[in-house]
Amino acid sequence: MAASGRDDEKAGEDISSVMGFSGFGKKARTFDLEAIFEQTRRTAIERSQRVLEDRQNETQGELSSGPSTAFKQKEKPSASTSRQQDSDDSSDSEIVGPPVPPGLTAQADDDDDDDELVGPPLPPGYSGSTADDDDTDDDDDNDTVEEDDDPVKKIPDTHEITLQHGTKTVSALGLDPSGARLVTGGYDYDVKFWDFAGMDAALQAFRSLQPCECHQIRSLQYSITGDVILVVAGNSQAKVLDRDGFQVLECVKGDQYIVDMANTKGHTAMLNSGCWHPKIKEEFLTCSNDGTVRTWDLNSEKKHKSVFKPRSLQGKRVTPTCCTYSRDGKLIAAGCQDGTIQIWDRNLSVHTKFHCRQAHTPGSDTSCLTFSYDGTTLASRGGDDTLKTWDIRSFKKPLKVATGLTTYFPMTDCCFSPDDKLLVTGTSVKREEGNGKLVFFDRESFRKVYEIEVASASVVRCLWHPKLNQIMVGTGNGLAKVYYDPVKSQRGAKLCVVKNKRKEKQAETLTQDYIITPHALPMFREARQRSTRKQLEKDRLDPLRSHKPEPPVSGPGRGGRVAAHGGTLSSFIVKNIALDKTDDSNPREAILRHARDAAENPYWVAPAYKQTQPDPVFAEEESEEDDDDKEPEWKKRKI
Asked: pTM to 2 decimals?
């Protein structure tokens, strides 16, 4: 029976293996996790002990004989015995981390359990407590924190480069978002393109053009993607250029005979300012002397997108002199000639959302409005020589005011530092009456913390790029300066100052113009002259070419040469008239005389045909009367 049962089991196993479910029905294996963890822990302890013994053997072999050697030899068995004891103890007393150097084993044994080493091991020759060093490290950390808190030390002004735009005021600056290219515009109608990566130490612009003909450039700005540039000039039509200066869009001009400016397709008077939307890459904003602020779409050039009309307290039209978007692009702010600052919701163009009636002195041009990076503070640069900050949540009174900042230009800039702790603006000076300055104010206290003397001219434009950490400045004498720090700044001006100037290729001057025929045979080619010096030497050796011509003889003859009777034209004519013996009184006789000679004494043609020349046959003369008789009747004249 038992044998038959075994046979049945084998047969069942063979069938199950053939069918593919031989493992079904068996009992699952069980694992003791605690035993596995214990085995793994012991293996790790043994391995760390083995590594520690190997390191101790290496150090004993390297060190020379002496008290330190004896000390280590004595400590070695104690260390091994302690490791054996540790292996029997609980896991709390095991070695964690890299092994302790042998020079510190005795010190580690004497210390309490609370003073265990944490972190990487100390050097072998180190001795003493670390308390003093911890104090010094804390002091150093405090110093670095204080340096980081001081925003003045972050100003990149240790080095500068000067870009020569022209001789007139640089009234516009623009940097693309990556900081690779700079565009400058001025009162000389030129827009110049500067590529930091492509420039060398000569600092030359790679392109210069006049996009708006004879109109001063008021504003330049790259879009958020950096592929197009907004050009606002003194005409009524803003233009959009690509990165290489080719025109992409020109805004349409409005009808100046329509009273309501909202019904025109575009601006009808001179533009004052413009900027791109910070979030939407196709939308930009312009303001004009026609009393409107208009938004435009890059894809529709035939009409504006929306119109905002600033109004005074009496409801009259006022001229906006500057405009800008908020950082999130939801608000549109404009500074007007009556001293007001008006802010609209971008989607609601009728009524203002915030309005400050007496922001600056009425009649002065507010030259710049800019929002802080956190979006809560608005800075305004007024034509009344002031700089003010506003909290748009309570827009009645300014937060801080700085006075005595002279400005003579309607586009004087102000901007925030990348960390939002400083506010920067420029000052204007009259010619040869001082230096224009770049002034830095602390945003919270509004105390003047720093200033840079830029040039002996007004500082008109300033731009602090957040990625490059470099400051671009446009001056009144045609210079664009870039301030940077080799440590704190990135790329930008650092790329071009390290390149050497390219050597100018001297044009080779040819003494004679040649017509070069590429397919001519070598035998017909002339030897090309490389220099004139060798040719002159050859001509000097040639007696014919180097012969000096004889000067004309004046006065009596000498040296075998007879002097002429007269060297002037009048004497020549008189002499020929006296020698002329021909008598032209009867020209017919003179001609017939030659004809008679030719007939009697032929010389040229007749002798060649003397034998073959036939006799001439002349027509007989007929009277006119005979001709009249022979005519038909219908041709005869009727009397």
From this structure: 0.57
